[in-house]
Design a protein that fits this description.
Blueprint: E1 2-7, E2 12-17, H1 23-40, E3 45-49, H2 59-72, E4 78-82, H3 91-95, E5 102-106, H4 111-119, E6 128-130, E7 138-147, H5 149-167, E8 170-183, H6 185-197, E9 202-209, H7 212-221, E10 228-232, H8 237-245
């Protein structure tokens, strides 16, 4: 089994395996990870505390372990391995070829040091990029990675509110690239709230993305919006910029 505890002060999930690891152990770990994100609107770092490497109970457990890594490896920024196991000595060297997280190993008795390292701020990832060279009544943003509530509060919402204050009716071009991972719960709420607050203030909206579900979602909700909404592929970004920048009444 895996005993899982939260260290909110250090923004960490602590996983302490005991005995052979099962498929259910990793399903539980994945569930606890998601619960932490939804409760705190932040991605926890992972601290694995195991004096020895317990191994997997069967092949399905190994598969579930790999699936957990595949689903979360782009989200977690730090992984601390706290163990004296010789098997785990080479784990960081191997894992760095497959994971984007920063990985560090600590002796089994140094859990506190591992948690302190986990809490150290990493260089903050840039999830929202502001598009340059657009007319002043056009808000252009490109999102990647995991978009958080902070991204909305610090970047997206102020842009939209300032443009509306200066120009009244505004336009939005929103690029969701292939690096996009999703929204945290807080960001999803801010996204919905921003849309409601400015529901009648957008005259045109261009959504640029190759993400399949994004195109389907926009197609579903576009008829409900008072704005003129078009979806463009990533390769059509310049075409989308030209369309969003065209004066009102210009041919599409």
């Amino acid at each position: 089994m895996i005993a899982i505890s939260e260290d909110i002060a250090n923004n960490a999930l602590i996983a302490e395996p005991d005995g052979r690891l099962t498929k259910e152990d990793f399903e539980n770990l994945s569930g606890r990870f998601n619960d932490y994100v939804n409760a705190h609107d932040k991605i926890p770092n992972l601290v694995v505390h195991a004096r020895t490497f317990p191994g997997w109970s069967d092949f399905s457990a190994l598969i579930e372990h790999l699936q957990f890594i595949h689903m979360h490896e782009k989200l977690v920024s730090k992984i601390a391995l706290v163990s004296d196991s010789r098997v785990l000595d080479i784990a960081p060297q191997i894992a760095r070829h497959f994971l984007s997280a920063e990985i560090r190993q600590f002796p089994a008795d140094d859990l506190d040091k591992a948690l302190a390292w986990s809490a150290e701020p990493a260089s903050e990832a840039q999830h929202v990029e502001i598009m340059e060279g657009l007319p002043r009544d056009v808000v252009g943003v490109s999102v990647r990675g995991v978009v958080t509530a902070k991204d909305y509060q610090k970047t997206i919402a102020p842009l939209v509110e300032k443009a509306h204050e200066d120009h009244g009716k505004i336009k939005l071009i929103y690029q969701i690239g292939p690096e996009f991972e999703g929204y945290t719960a807080g960001a999803a709420w801010n996204d919905a709230r921003l849309g409601v607050m400015h529901f009648t203030q957008f005259s045109k909206i261009a959504v640029v993305s190759d993400v399949n579900w994004i195109g389907k979602a926009v197609g579903l909700f576009a008829p409900l919006l008072p704005a003129d909404v078009h979806v463009f592929a990533d390769a059509e970004l310049e075409e989308a910029k030209a369309w969003i920048s065209a004066p009102e009444g210009a041919p599409a």
